[in-house]
Amino acid sequence: MQLEPPAVPPALPSIRARLNRAALGLLLLPAAATAQDPATNQLDVTALLYGEQGRAQVWEPVVRASRLFGNGQALAGQLTVDVITGASPSGALPSGEVQTSTSPSGNVTTIPAGAIPLTDFSDRRVALDGEWVLPFGRFTTTTLGAHASHEKDYDSAGVNGRFSFELMQKLLTLTVGGGVNEDSVSPIGGTPDGLSDGTVTYDRSNSKRSTSLLLGMSRVLTRRWVVGLDGTRTDESGYLTEPYKLLSQMDPATGMPVGQLTDKRPSSRSRNSLLASSAYHFSRDILYSSYRYYWDSWDVQSHTLDLKYRHDLEDDWYVEPHLRLYQQSAATFYVGGLVDGAPLPNFATADYRLGDLTTITVGTTFAFHILDSPSQWTVRAEYIRQAGDSSPPGVIGVQRGFDLAPPIDTISVVFGYSLPF
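RESULT FIELD:
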């Protein structure tokens, strides 16, 4: 059972985190039709503009077409294009002197004294998703999906399935699903050995596999209140290292950077999450709320609280304020840097996305119609502020005087257009 109506895609959670669709819940489709309803079509077009202050910018157009048949079947296809440019922290530490670095593509970057080293990048990703919803009888629905995406150093393909069963005169819905993704990682400039100086690389692609399992339920408590509980498990194996991230080696006396090593992460990761959600319909408005707890085998834990309040206006117009709070703990092998000459650990990363993080998102969605057209326009604007650990584990000497994770301010705007026909 759907607790929230289809909406425009959310802002990207983090730049350079792969934008692959999860193996579960591939596309949002219109609510199932009854057997007496005629076939209907719908076209949804959205465009995301996302910008981090002084860092990455994203432009993401999405086109989705769906057809809902009179017997309850539904087909949907979606095309997504992500264009990403800008800069991202390399993982290296700042220095009191000017630093010069060379990217895998040969670009030379000069980092001012005291500045956090950034790496310029640009990428484009094209993804195709498809989904088929097939009812069996009055109480069972099967959903089958497929996904494929390509970017210059990453390819992904996957399939997924989901089964929903309605019980207690359709007051209770149980869902079970699963999916498999097969990915190929081909770093620009070759694959370096982990925790090496990066001068020796291998011209090869690296495989990565992920399998997912979903168990969920939703329950109609009253005429106005629906609640849900979902649990997911995802197991990843293969090449999970970020080949473009670095770690600084620090002088044991001063903490000044004296060298750089490449990132290295374990070759397996198990992710788990529990999501509790609620939708309460007042006489006019709707309150959506959810809490998600996440934990994995890298000892990353996170808490997410999400609140939306939809206030309906005249003629199907509405405004929907949004508040999201996110807090994350660091992975066990997350460090600010490594001391030169000390024994190397088995795994280490300075990628801030695996460190302590706190994120606050505040935004509003506004939906409206133009004249008497059945199409709906949607505009959503959000402000995102993210802060990390300013003094992560392992830093010594002069590094304690730098803010190694300054707050990042981000603005995202999504324009949406939906046309039933």
